Amino acid sequence: MGLEMPPIKLIIAYVLDWILIIAIAAVGGGISFITPYHRPFSLVDLAISYPYVDHDVISNAALVLISLIAPAIIIVIVTALFVPAFSRSTIRDKRYWQRKLWEFNAGWMGLALSYALALFVTQGIKNLLGKPRPDLLARCQPDLTDIAAHVVGGYGQDISQRWTLVSSSICTQTDKKRLDEGFRSFLSGHSSMSWAGLLYLSLWLASKFNMLIPYLGHGTPSPKRNDDDEDAEQEARDRAAAPPVFGAIIVLVPLCVAFYICSTRYVDFKHQGIDIFSGSVLGIMTAWIGFRWYHGSLTRGQPWTWSPRSKDRAFAVSSGTHGWIGERMVRRERVQRNREVDVEAGGSGDPIVK
C-alpha cells in the first residue's frame, strides 16, 4: 500500500499557511520585548497597592505546557487511535491514512491559529494601553521625597502631593523588565492563552467523539401533540439521543483547567477582574475562529473536518465559483446529476461513467 502524495502546489499552499501562523505568533511574542506605554497612576490608589508575588502559581512556561503543548499531544494521540474509526477493512485503504494525516494537520493548524491570534492581540493591547497591574506600587518602589517633580495631573495638590497622578519616572525600581511588566495588566495573557488552547481542545474533542447536543436541523417540523399522531412524534424523537455523561466530562475538563488558570491571576495580584474577563473573551473568540476555520458547526450537528483545498484553488478563488473545494465539488455535483437522470430513465441510480 503506497500513499499518494498531494499535489506539490497544495503542499506549498499549506506550508505557507503554517509560515503565516508562525509569523503571527512570532510578532506577538516579539511585542513583549517592546517597552509598553506607562499610564500615569496615583500613589494612593489602593487598586494598585497589592504586594508583589515573585513566583506565580502558573508560570509562563507552565501556561504554554498546559494550554498549547498538552492539547497538541492529545490531538496526536486521539487522531492516531480513534480518527477516523479503525476497522480491518479500512486499514488497507490509502484514503484512511490520507484522512488521518489530514486530521493531524487540520487539528494542529486550528490550535496554532487560535493560539497565534490570541498571543498577537493580547501582547498588542497590553503594550498599547499600558494599564498598571494591581501590584504596580510594589514593583515601582516610588521615591516619596520629591513627588512634585513627577506630577503629571490631578487636582488633589491642596490636600496632599500624593493625591495626584504621577509618571513612572518616580519609580526607583532598577529591574526594567519587572517595571515594564507592571504596566501590562489589560488584558490577561494567561486568560486569553488558556482559553485559546483549552477551549479549542474541548471543541475538538467534542467533534471527534460526537459529544453534541442533539440537533434535528433547521426547518425540521415539530409534530403536534395529539392522540392521533403518536407515531409522528415518536419518529421525531428517535432522530437523536443525548450522548453519555462521561463524554461530557471529558469535554469539560479542559474548560475547568482554563477557569483555574484564570483564577490564579487574580490570586497572584497580577490582574483585576475586568482584565481576566476580557482576556477570557478574547481567548474564546480565537478558539472559535481556529476551530470553525477547519471544522463544521457543532451546534448544527456537523462536527467533521473540512476537506483540504483543491489544487487549482490552493491560493486564490474567484467569486461566483464553488469556493475553495474547486473541482471536487463540481465532479460530485455532476455525478449526482447523472445519478438522478439515470433513475428517471429507469436505471439503478449508479453513477453514469462517460
Automatic annotation (TrEMBL):
Residues 109-291 form the Phosphatidic acid phosphatase type 2/haloperoxidase domain. It comes from the Eukaryota. The chain crosses the membrane at residues 12-37, 57-83, 104-125, 195-216, 245-267, 273-294. It holds the Pfam family PAP2. GO terms for biological process: phospholipid dephosphorylation; phospholipid metabolic process. It is a multi-pass membrane protein. SMART domains: acidPPc. Gene3D superfamilies: Phosphatidic acid phosphatase type 2/haloperoxidase. Keywords: Membrane, Oxidoreductase, Peroxidase, Transmembrane, Transmembrane helix. CDD domains: PAP2_containing_1_like. It is found in: Membrane. GO terms for cellular component: membrane. InterPro entries: PAP-like, PAP2/HPO, PAP2/HPO_sf. GO terms for molecular function: peroxidase activity; phosphatidate phosphatase activity. Belongs to the PA-phosphatase related phosphoesterase family. This is Acid phosphatase/Vanadium-dependent haloperoxidase.
